[in-house]
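Subject: mismatched residue count in predicted assembly?

I count 173 residues in my input, but I want to confirm that the predicted structure covers every chain. Input:
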Amino acid sequence: MPQIAWQKDVDAALGEARASGRPVLIDFSAAPA
Amino acid sequence: MAEFISTHFIPVKVHIKERKPVFERFGAQWTPTVLVVDADGKEHHRLEGFLPVEDYLAQLELGLGKLQFHAHHFDEAKRRFQAVCNDHPKAGGAPEACYWAGVAAYKGTNDAKHLGAAGELLKARYPDSEWARKASVWLH
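Triage response: the counts match. Full output below for your records.
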């Protein structure tokens, strides 16, 4: 099953979004890792 | 679901114990909260609370539609909204998507027939939804 490559740094993700043209999906969680 | 997310988004997971300031920055008050934001950090869609997979996927597609709608890309927005309306008709977000599909079609063409068609569809398929009531003003 494919895994999601979740990032942890929102600002880095926003920079990647700017470069890729994709939006950012931010999942706020309290679940155990 | 993983493929859909990886294809369409840059995914970020923020844990409350590790990055509480990010919760405050984006106004997240509860978990799970999921946001669709653009590269400037502007929020276009918000989910609060757990959803089963089909509802969750429908909400993500709805978020993609709103992103396009807010950028005035009405044809692409309509396509995204219609995908939810047609492909996830039992999802909780489907009535909203059908509503916005009609609005996006109208905004893209300035033809009010799209509003009427959306109103008829909502009345027939989701008569008890608030979106059908919102669209009722489009019916003649």
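The longest strand of chain B covers residues 10-15. Marking this ticket as 'not a bug'.
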